[in-house]
Amino acid sequence: MSAARAKSGGARLVMAAFKGETRQELADRADACAWFRVGQLGKVIKFLGKEGATEAVMVGQIAPRNLFDLRPDMRTAMLLARLKEKNAESIFSAIADELAKDGIDLLPATTFLEDMMPKEGHVCGPVLKDLSDVQYGFTLAKETSRLDIGQTVVVRNGTVLAVEAFEGTNACIHRGGELGKGKDVTVVKVSKPNQDFRFDVPVIGPDTVKNCERSGIKTIAIEAGKTLMLGGDEVRAMCDQHKVSIVAVASADGSVKVAEATCAHPESD
To answer: Quick one: which of 74, 84, 180, 249 has the fewest CB in 10 Å?
Structure first.
């Protein structure tokens, strides 16, 4: 989606694709493309420089397991040796610094996708009448994300059923749905405080709705203006079909407010 929008805006698209991560159909959209192993930072930067790239956007994600199973080239090895903490955030931040050394500015991953980030209020599916678990879950998710534990929680009637950690959002949803027995269960996904949107953006999409439906979960709450909703038309259709509600929550001055009166409909490709 961001590739198509970039090209429609007149940009020349140069893609550094990663084996085992990037889909071939995405690579086919680029004006120039080269394939790399995760950890070949030096070769990636050399390729981007050769193609004249001065700005870059990270699209999609690298599976967390691959960040801990690297075969680094010399530039990556030197980068890792300088890091005191080797979590995904510190690694990607250091990569952004390395790109900048070679005149390549890493833009937010939401570049060209701003209209796919729902605004505050009801997004799709049935309109919620009881928002207590949404508000409760939002407060908890903000705290677990601040502690860098996870950005998703699953709650039911004021009880925490699951907290996301290394296993990822889908596994958290499945576990929470099982424990809640698929009744009155709410999933809440938020951004971290001071989240670096250059390489880390909360995302939901058709797979999220599908996993919630399979787990018997009927409510998804996201952080307004800070969460990408991919495949908007498909998501709305699935929510209507399976009676799954999506609401976007905004925080202000440490409190939580949810406006049911507004309805965000981000465009999709």
So the answer is: 84
